[in-house]
Amino acid sequence: MASKKTAGGDDGNSNQLEKVQARRRWSNAEDGALVTAWLNTSKDGVIANEQKAQAFWKRVCNYYHGCTAVKDFPPRLWNTCKQRWTKINKEVQLFCGCFDQASRQATSGQSDDDIFQMAYKFYYQDHKTNFILDHAWRALRNDQKWRSLNRDKGKTQSKKSTAT
C-alpha cells in the first residue's frame, strides 16, 4: 500500500525526504577540477591500474576536493564524480570525432578556432544538441587518450614513406 503524505509529514518518510539534496549542476570550474583530478590520478605510476574502481574514484574525488578552484563549492561524493566523468568522457570523445572530421576537411589558412567551429557544427548535426563541454575538451584534447588518431596515423605513414 502506498502511504499518504499528510501536511504534518507523519507518514514516516519525511526524514528520508529531508536527507535528499536537490540536484546541483556542475560548474565549469568543477568540471575543470574533475578533469585535472582524473588526469593526475590516472597517470599515477606508483599505483597505476592496480586498484579497484571504487578506490580509484575515491582518490580522484580526494584530488578534486584538494583543487583550489572548488574550495568554495559543497563537496561531491566519489560516485557523483564518477558519473560526471562518464558524461564528460563520452561527450568529449564524440566531439573529438567531429574535430577529426573537421580537421580532415580544413583548408589551408584555417585556424584551430575555424576547425573548432566546423567541428561544433558537425557535432550539432550528428547529435541534435550543442556541445557544451568545450572547456573540458580543451583541457583533454592534447592528452594521449584524446589525441587524433588520424594525426598519429599520418605521422606514422610519413615516417614510413620517407624511409623507403
Q: What does the model show?
A:
By secondary structure, the chain is mainly α. Helix content is 62%, strand content 0%. The protein has helices spanning 14-19, 28-42, 53-66, 78-105, 112-127, 134-140, 149-163. Mean pLDDT is 78; it is low at 1-19 and 152-164. InterPro entries: SANT/Myb (IPR001005). This is Myb-like domain-containing protein. Residues 18-89 form the Myb-like domain.
| Count of extended strands | 0
Shape descriptor reads globular
Name the average pLDDT.
78
Main sheet attributes: strand count, strand direction, barrel closure: none
Organism: Microthlaspi erraticum
Domain Myb-like: 18-89
Protein name: Myb-like domain-containing protein
InterPro entries: SANT/Myb
Using brief descriptors, characterize the structure shown.
disordered N terminus; disordered C terminus; about 160 residues; mainly alpha; SANT/Myb; 7 helices
Write the layout of secondary structure elements.
Layout (H helix, E strand, L loop, with lengths): L13 H6 L8 H15 L10 H14 L11 H28 L6 H16 L6 H7 L8 H15 L1
Helix pairs in contact: 2-3, 2-4, 2-6, 3-4, 4-5, 4-6
Nutshell version of this structure?
The protein is mostly helical. Helices cover 62% and strands 0% of the residues.
